[in-house]
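Here is a tokenized protein:
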Amino acid sequence: MIAECDKQFIGRRKPGGGYAYYDFLQNRRFDIAGPNPTPKEQKSFDEEYVVFLNAQRRDAITAALAERQRLRAEAAFQNDQPSADTVIPLGAPLVITPNNVRIPGTGSQAARSKVERCDDASLSCSWTKFSAGIKNIFGVYAKVNRP
């Protein structure tokens, strides 16, 4: 008697009301209006199945290509291991440019001229340039953060 009912009504009653049809080919459920799908609902199941098959085909092709590429790379690595002097071509260098860069003030005219006159690589010259840069940075932040 249950088998007869299964043949006659392919939709199943949902706990909240309505009916659901289970499509075993797609392993998914569809909501339907009554105990049996209408021809319009059956057509939508078929359209969904075509989309499902296309997605499976696309996934299979992608997996096959990835496997083929992995095997080629593995074979190339084993057959022709690159030596230390082998140059691997790289792409174009990545250029990162910040937006709205604020150029800090340079401070007093005397400090600026003292830094510009310093051309040698002595410690005092380097320290002067370093301290002038720090003063400029703190000066900019102090002006920005004032209420």
Remarks:
- Helices lie at 2-8, 39-79, 109-117, 123-144.
